[in-house]
Amino acid sequence: MASTIAGFLTQSRALRGSEFWNSHWPSLINKVDDPYIRAILLKIGGDNWESVLEEEAIPLLDRVAIAMFHLSDKAVSLDLFGVG
Fold first, then answer.
1. DSSP state, residue 69
2. 82: left (phi over 0), alpha (psi -120 to 50) or beta
3. Long-range CB contacts (within 8 A, 24+) of 10-18
4. Distance CA 54, CA 13 (A)
5. Cα gap 18→44, rounded to integer Å
6. What is the average pLDDT score of the chain?
7. What is the dihedral sign for C-alpha 28, 31, 37, 39?
8. Buried b vs exposed e over 41-74: b needs ≥16 C-beta within 10 Å?
């Protein structure tokens, strides 16, 4: 997995935005079993933190910690975690 991430990050931004990467990267993410690896791949693939927080296989406490660290106070709400 490390070589996949390193290979992705060594590509230029133009190549990362290509049709190949846009179709290949999501299919790679869907094949990964570990939710933490999926979250890393989502984020380095250009998704926002909200998409990482939607990874329900990551325990709620970990998702709350991610939200507190990376989102503004205004962006954090119980709705973000499907509670309430």
1. H
2. left
3. 16/46
4. 25
5. 15
6. 79
7. positive
8. bbeebebebeebbeeeebeeeebeebbeeebeee
> Pick the residue with more confidence: 75 or 66?
66
Residue with tokens 């709620």: 60
Strand, helix or coil at 11?
A: coil
Q: pLDDT tens digits, residue range 30-59?
A: 888 999 988 888 888 777 888 888 888 999
51's enclosing H/E stretch is helix 49-53
77: nearest Cα among 66, 62, 64 = 64
**pTM score, whole prediction:** 0.68
Place of tokens 């998704």: 47
